[in-house]
Amino acid sequence: MPAPLTCDLDAAVFAATSALEERRVPAPSALLLSMTGLGLLTGHLEAAGRLPVELLPGAPQAWRASVLHWGDLEGLPVWLLEDQVGPLETQSAPWERAWPVWLAAAAGAATLVHSSAACSLAQAEPGTIALARDHINLSGTSPLTGLGQSRLGPMFPDQSALHDPHLRAVALSSCTSLGLVGEEAVFACVRGPALETPAEQRWFRAAGADVSVQELAPPLLAAAHAGLGVLAIGLVVARAGERADIARLAAAARRMTPALDDLLLAVARAADLRARQSLEEGGA
Questions:
Q1: How far apart are the two ends of the chain, measured CA to CA in Å?
Q2: Domains and CATH numbers, the chain
Q3: pLDDT recorded at residue 177
Q4: What is the DSSP pairing of strand 111-120 with strand 211-214?
Q5: Is 176 a residue whose pLDDT tops 70?
Q6: What's the distance, CA 275 to chain centroid?
Q7: Contact partners, residue 19, CB within 8 Å, separation at least 6
Q8: How much is the pLDDT for 246?
């Protein structure tokens, strides 16, 4: 007889993974979770499929309007999902904000690729693609609250190796090949949806951050808990100190979407090649 479930997160993930197995949804190598939209990536998938998240038992209310896409992206098995979930209602469990990260890990994923809009706190110009080498959680929140009894990860996950240096190097090289401006950066993870004040931006910079990103802490902490490596991508759409306008920032992010598509295709291609080489070396 299986051991009893130890927390609501476990129950939600195990119920959904069982449903995915019954529907024969293929296991992913990576989850691509995007706060800037999926662009044209779904059109590049081979052996593709899609499923409304609301059909998965255990799916939190916050994600039920989403659609899970899957397939091979340049040969790499992936899941694609738009991250349109903002701060949760006060009655929601903190883990709900990052539920898809645990779901993908339980289904077999080893990597989280997350993209979002970012504000430059230092030298990066708008149009730059920032690639996280580290992060600072300044949001005051954590999706790990209350997960001490979870079987999906340790109570105190190690974050020292969370940001995958190989994937970051591949992404930087791909930016160069594609004629894009890519830079390593420390990300300040801040709470949304309010835009930062100039004083807050100066504080983030003084703390050691190069860019600020809203609502990034939950997926990063969930990835650490689940044991996933991370490539966090920030599309720099504004500079600290400038007058902020949401419509203008959203338009700037949309203009960068084709470049992000090209970058993700290049990273997936390189990751698939690395996986095939590892298999060949292992079989030699």
A1: 41
A2: 8-283 (3.40.50.1580)
A3: 95
A4: antiparallel
A5: yes
A6: 21
A7: 55, 56, 57
A8: 77
Give 90's DSSP letter.
T
Give residue 5's pLDDT.
Answer: 40
Q: Which of 163, 212, 219, 210 is nearest to 190 (CA)?
A: 212
Distance CA 204, CA 136 (A): 9
Phi/psi at 190 (5° precision): -120, 165
Residue 281 pLDDT grade (very low, low, confident, very high; cuts 50, 70, 90) = low
User: Measuring CA to CA, which residue among 60, 38, 62 is closest to residue 50?
Assistant: 38
Which region, left, alpha or beta, applies to residue 279 given φ > 0 means left and ψ of -120 to 50 means alpha? alpha
pLDDT digits (tens, 9 = 90+) for 89-124: 666 889 999 999 999 999 999 999 999 999 999 889
Task: Report the alpha-carbon distance of residue 159 to residue 136 in Å, rounded.
Answer: 11
Q: Do you know the residue count of the chain? A: 284
pTM of the predicted model as reported, rounded to 2 decimal places: 0.91
Q: What's the mean pLDDT in 177-181?
A: 96
- Contact between residue 96 and residue 7 where contact means Cβ atoms under 8 Å apart: no
Task: State the virtual CA torsion across 212, 104, 97, 241 in degrees, nearest 10.
Answer: 10
Per-residue DSSP letter, 163: B
Interstrand relation of 76-82 and 182-190 (parallel, antiparallel or unpaired) = unpaired
Residue with the bigger pLDDT between 6 and 10: it is 10
Within 13 Å of residue 114, how many CA atoms lie on the same side as its CB?
Answer: 30
What average pLDDT does this structure show over 19-45? 95
β-bridge pairing 111-120 and 229-239: parallel
